[in-house]
């Protein structure tokens, strides 16, 4: 763990290392991913089956084997513990209620001369959702991707998820049933992204692909962008914490570890003006680590990509955190809302001592698919807008085109586009 004070001689170098935490060396996998994409484009299901045999260690015997049946989803839903089922329903209801407030609206504005300008908002026809599998399965990620697509009004929703040894995660299947998803395929990695981008005999081509994944998935999404739209290029998970002396060191330690346990590449960063708090958190992290089932993963993450930084003031702490632009940002201070206007860059902001990042992962309501690696400076969380598009509406009356048509024709003439110019002039009195 980097444990530094801004006054330290090596602070600038250590901080630059933190700023580069999200860089993924896509170059070394792009050739592999490019080959996978080309194979899917050319051989479709045949290539898919070969990739599944290679990466997930089982061989589909037919095209039908690629799809998960709705019956198995229903059975999984019925078999899960009632308390867990109720928890999933709570999450579903809260996530849906939040995203319904995001839905953009069409609008029209009429000017005195008869001009009508506006915006028409429509959903994409189809969406492909990638849900990670392998080491772990995340039903919460399914909810966070499916629900905004449904709220947007997407008619065809396709889900792809890897199933090592042909063993789908039962909780993920239960979540699919809860969401009413019918088209779920046992395909993972770059193969799944390519299949959804270009289509196969079984998996339909979609308009937009969303969802997190490893470097192969991220690289594939980047390479198919333009053929389809994508949500973002997401990297390893991360948390930033701004805290003052009112914060509970024990709470902050486990909050930092809640991201470290994701994987070895996750980043957990505390910035505080309190040296006392920094020392206490460092000690509490070690106390918590020995209790975690995923201690090995969390320890490597904390040791190699974790940081505690002590600043001269909270204003300086916020300035540094804005440069980091973390995926998740906890503001554990006495008056967090007073600091909110100063915070410019973060995927999701958690305010107050009783708002751990984990509450946002599951049941708060806002989406947990967030920009990572500093991309919160220009990306937003996944939302309903990712599954919708806008069309401009323009309608001119005779009076309207007579009023400003000459200016339009003049600009077209200046650009040397004669047909543009004349298409306006022929309509003028």
Describe the model.
The strands form three sheets. This protein has a six-stranded parallel beta sheet with strand order 1-12-11-10-13-14, with helices on both faces. Strands 2-7-6-5-8-9 form a six-stranded mixed beta sheet, with helices on both faces. It has three domains: 2-24 and 235-364, Rossmann fold (3-Layer(aba) Sandwich), CATH 3.40.50.1980; 27-230, 3-Layer(aba) Sandwich (Rossmann fold); 396-425, no CATH class. It is globular and about 80 Å long. With 429 residues, it is an alpha/beta fold. α2 crosses α9, α5 (82-100) packs parallel to α6 (139-152) and α5 (82-100) packs across α7 (170-179). The chain has helices at 11-19, 27-43, 45-55, 70-79, 82-100, 139-152, 170-179, 189-198, 215-224, 249-260, 275-289, 295-305, 314-324, 336-339, 357-362, 398-414, 418-425; strands at residues 2-5, 67-68, 107-110, 116-123, 126-130, 156-160, 183-185, 208-210, 229-230, 238-243, 267-272, 306-310, 328-332, 348-351, 388-395. α7 links the parallel β6 (156-160) and β7 (183-185). 45% of the residues lie in helices and 16% in strands.
